[in-house]
Structures are given as structure tokens and as C-alpha cells.
Fold this protein.
Amino acid sequence: MRAKRIAIVGLGLIGGSLGLAFKNMGGEKVIVIGIDHDQSTLQKAIERGAVDHSTNDLAEGVKYADIIFLCTPVLQIVPIVEKMLPYLKVGAILTDVGSTKSFLAEKLSAILPAGIHYVSGHPMTGREQSGIMAAEVDLFRDKWYILVPEASTCSEAVDEISQVLKWTGARLTTMDIAAHDQCAAIISHVPHVAAAALVNLLELYPDLEDNFKLVGGGFRDTTRIASSNADMWADICLTNAQTITDSLLNLQALLDEVIQGIKKGDRQAIHYFFKRAKVRRDALIAKTDSHAIV
Amino acid sequence: MRAKRIAIVGLGLIGGSLGLAFKNMGGEKVIVIGIDHDQSTLQKAIERGAVDHSTNDLAEGVKYADIIFLCTPVLQIVPIVEKMLPYLKVGAILTDVGSTKSFLAEKLSAILPAGIHYVSGHPMTGREQSGIMAAEVDLFRDKWYILVPEASTCSEAVDEISQVLKWTGARLTTMDIAAHDQCAAIISHVPHVAAAALVNLLELYPDLEDNFKLVGGGFRDTTRIASSNADMWADICLTNAQTITDSLLNLQALLDEVIQGIKKGDRQAIHYFFKRAKVRRDALIAKTDSHAIV
């Protein structure tokens, strides 16, 4: 059986980590071709063993590929796919790792010809660092990797991607597309906006600048994801727009619950706000921890 | 030289950790008396070696104390001090660990008689777990411990508390009271409210409940402090009320910056929002890390 040829477009944290995992577990059964516009990234990907071959020529990189992982910020995906279409072989499977699925499903279904398959995916993992040097072979291990069959073009292609993803050690699951985009908004997108907002809040108090060194573990953890890649997050906001703005309005309303409670001196209301958050989070973390053991 | 007698009122995370640190480094030079209304907490404090003696009788616990650490939620402090005043010896020093300083300074200055000193303090440390079993001997080590001389009754008492706090390994610093309360609001109080709000946001989407198991490290870290003690945080909100509500309104306005950016499809504005958060946070973390090394 000939080796599977996997092209990875965009050798950042996710693309680089996929390459490391494929090479680590796939061994001789897989050939990884890394594609990136940045020459130094390509060189580091080779040095780190994340790819077998590297190129900044999209046509060259994808022409023999069985599977193409699209690992750029979301808004770059459609233009890149348009560019590569003439060079793809019949039967090639495109799959992406973007955090917003409806946008891509709609745009891609409009341009993909027969014989080119698409599998919609989203790994629930990350780090606040980005780039090839932040990539880790175990980034996906025991983490959820969501596939959206509803937005994918055929079930055989979904099966094929599922097989390949087993090399990453991820826990595969499936979701409906609307549920995915709403769920991603409230458990990931809105927390990213909130974390960045908490950091930007500091800029309104320049007189206190010298005191910000006092930040403890609470601020550090709450804002960790505010150190993420700005390009990636700008694209996510614009491609899950309505869902994110609706959820941000709901978050503002929840903050208002505390503002009103404080103004009225209503200790019971404020206590209830913190208490139900604690109860819900403790239960959620216990549940995800028990899943992690299984 | 006779041993210093330190009473700790409220043997939770902070009170318990102070006891552990005092006994660990102070040894024979310190006698720690633990005071709590909960019998099981008192027993655990003895078992863990956080206190030499324990009692639920406030008068009994404080009557020989040279120093009394007030480690209950903020709103309980003034009533407790009122109760203990008749039993304190002349020259006793009261000090608290509350997160809001103006409220306490005002209330305590109105009731403290001559001969009883007060030192206003705030350790910048914590864990999301609470209670005596969460206490740690090193909770304060290399963490900032703020003293507010402006809100304290005499400089000798501040010196005395500073000496005792050296046993904890904390890094002592001083702040003006207004700067403290504003700074604490934006680096600690508002992040706690935001973290709880992000958790409470989930309750608005009951249909997605089964999918919340997908939460990754981002949600987990961003909301870690939402698992904190609700009583403690309700009291903080009510005793730093105006500063917290003003800062929450500013946070809402920052969220609005993103909402408007998304509505207008203004990628540059959204990118700038994430980018400046990343730049500021990375610089802040690098600065606090370099402080930590010193």
C-alpha cells in the first residue's frame, strides 16, 4: 500500500502540530508536504520533523496530495482553495481546522467541483503561543476533534479523515453545524473577546501602569487566551458574526445583572450570580475530567 | 524574648495558609491561635499544624493576642471587630487581608479605640478552592502582599506586621488606598465578575448542555476564578461598589467595540482590539516574570 500524501497549508501552531503527530504515529505510511508563504517557517518545519517536504508553491504542494489540511486563519481559506483547485487531483479531500463552520461550508460548496471532497472539522485545542515553534506532537492527544458531517460532501471522505486523525490521539466526535457555531461562540469565541477586553481595560487607567505588576494568577489565567493570534481571531469574529454578537450582548446583560445588584446593594442577587457560576463550573470541570479519564 | 501571639480569625484558604506559614518559619517564636465558628475547620487546622490552639470563642481567642489577622469575607470583619474590642489587650494590632480597603478603613477608624492599632493589608494570592483543606504553606511565597500605610493607624504597627509577614515569603509593597481599590477592581474584581459571567452565559443555551463537555483549556483557564467562594466575592462587590460598577461599565463598552466592529465588518478594528490586547498582555507577563526572578 502506497504512503498517504497529506499536504498541510499553513504551518502555524495547528498545522505544525498536525504534521508532528502524523509523522510521529504514521511513520512510513504517510508523506507530509508543508506549504507556507514564509521561508523561515518552512525551514523550521523541516528541522522539527513536522513535514517531509516543504514548499511555498501552492500548486506544487497540493498536486499529488490525497488529503489537504487547510490550517490558515479562516478568511484566507476560500481564496487559497480557489487558487489550488486547478491543481488538485480527482478524489482529493480538503479539510479545514477553522473555528467557524457555517461560513466555510457555504463558501466552499459554491466553488468545489465534483470529484473534490470537503470534510468540515474543528480541533478543540490550542495554545496562546502561535507559529511553528509552538507546535507540539501531543497538542491533539485526548482533546476533542469535532467533525461536521452535515457540512461535509461525502461520508467516505469523513471516514478517511477520521482514520488519519487517529494518528493525533484526538477524541473524535460529530456535531450539527448550527450547534457547533453557537457552542463554539460561547465556549471559545466570546471568552477570547472577553479576555482581550479585560486586558484592554487596563489601558483606560494609565496612572496605575506601575501597579499592574501586581497581577496575580487570577488575572494571568483569565486573560491567557488574550495572547492568541490576532489575525486568527479577527477572522473568527467576522465569520461567526451574528452568533458572536448575540452572545456578546448576552454577556453584557449578565454584567449588567451585577452592576444593578451592586447599585441596589442586593447582596443576595450578587451572591447568587457567583454561586451559580461556581456550581456550574465545578460540575462542568468534574464532567470533563471524568471524560478525560475514559 | 517571649513568643509572639497571633490570632487568626477565619481559617479558610488565606487564614489557614497564614497559620501554616507562621508555624513553618516562625517555629517557637510564634504561638498561633485559630478562631473559627466551624468545629470541623478548627480540628482540621490543628491536624494540619496551621494553629497551636483553636477555639470558636472569639473573646477567649483574642484576649492574649499581640496581633489579630482578620481573614473572613469583608462584610463580616467590622461586626467581628466590634465583638472582640472589649477583650483586646492594649497595644494589640488588628490587620486584615480583605480585597477592598477604603470601606474597611472608614468603618474601622470609626470604632477603634486608642491603644488598638490597625494595619490595612491585602495579599495578592489565592486559589479557586477555598477552606482550610485548600490552605498551602507557600501560598504567599514570592507573591505581592500590599500594605496600605495611609489606612493604617501607626507606622510602628505597619513595621511589626511587615516583620511577621516575612515568615510567609511574600514580597511586601505599599500603595495608596484609592490606587489600591481601583487597581484591585481592574486586575482582580472585574476579572472575577467576567469569569462568572462567562460561566453563567452557558445557562442561556440549555439545548447545548450535552456539548459543553467540549470545553478546552481556554474556557477552563478563563473561568478558573469563577469557582471561587461566592460569599467572599459578594462582599467584595458591595464594599468596592462604585469602583467596580464604573470598571464594569468600561468593560461593557470594550465589548461594544467588538460588537460594532463585527456589525460593520470592520476587520481592522477587530484586529486592533485583539492585537493591542496581545501586545499589552505579553509585555505585562514578561515584566511580572522578570520581577518574579528578582
Observations:
- Chain A touches chain B through 94 residues (CB under 8 Å).
